[in-house]
Amino acid sequence: MNKFWRCGAGLALLASASLAFAEFPDKPVTLVVPFAAGGPSDKIARDLAEALRKPLGQTVIVENAAGAGGTIGSTKVARAAPDGYTLLLHHIGMATAPALYRKLSYKVPEDFETLGLINEAPSVVIGKPMLAANNFAELRQWIASNGGKVNLAHAGLGSASHLCGLMFQSALKTSMTPVPYKGTAPAMTDLIGGQVDLMCEQATNAVPQIEGKKVKVYGITSLKRLPLPSLKDAPTLSEAGLADFNVQVWHGLYAPRGTPPAVLAKLNAALRVALKDPDLIKREEALGLTVVSDERLEPAGHRKHLEAEKARWSKVIKDAGEYAD
């Protein structure tokens, strides 16, 4: 009798859990952005949250948990309940943090479930408006003739501009003087004012300054040119002489490790619907972003891409010898 009671109780519990997963989500979902409000990742998150609302049938709340190069927000999600109600939207920094930070309170990718890549965007190499070089060939010569005196601004350790700058120096086989800032805005202000020489910044942030002719643009970091009016004449760095140079800033969606497969499947299905939203696509393209539609939209494809990027950037960062405490 007791044996049958335990069996019945177990089946009831299993049925109850299955029903709970089937009803997911039955309350708002929180989307954590590990950066401050107003930045490109925050904007992407808010656009995605709106596009996810219909397929999920619930409100998606964006929560900014900024600090330490995105590691504070990532830690928050890694330690959250694995129920699908706390998600993380993170950029390429997810792949670079393990190499940048000597002490990291989570493991990549082990502590996360990959849900799919969202978008990707190239960066652009830009210079102060009074720089003598007018194209990439002239810039390359100017860098060579000025040795280590060239100042290269970036928006902080682990930022897209920092990572792109490291790859740019590696491709040129030269070293520049890094000038770190607390964000893109102050770095861009000093570049416009001529206090620093160069910056390798995400196109999303640089296009307004290029359109206003406040900075000079020397090249795009993707293998294809960007179809934006302000960049129609800007070559890729690959065609300008740095063979196969390809640096893309990408964003992906994550859940805590151990989130039930049924919940993960629902979240991925909702992401797929959201990324086909015409309004979302239009907003992304206006920022120079390309919405992902290939195998990286699958959780397995996302994970494979994450691991490949982690290996790639680990070498670049270690060769540069730049670490956080």
From TrEMBL:
Pfam family, one: TctC
InterPro entries: BUG, Bug_dom1
Domain of life: Bacteria
Signal peptide: 1-22
Keywords: Signal
Family from the record: Belongs to the UPF0065 (bug) family.
Protein name: Tripartite tricarboxylate transporter substrate binding protein BugD
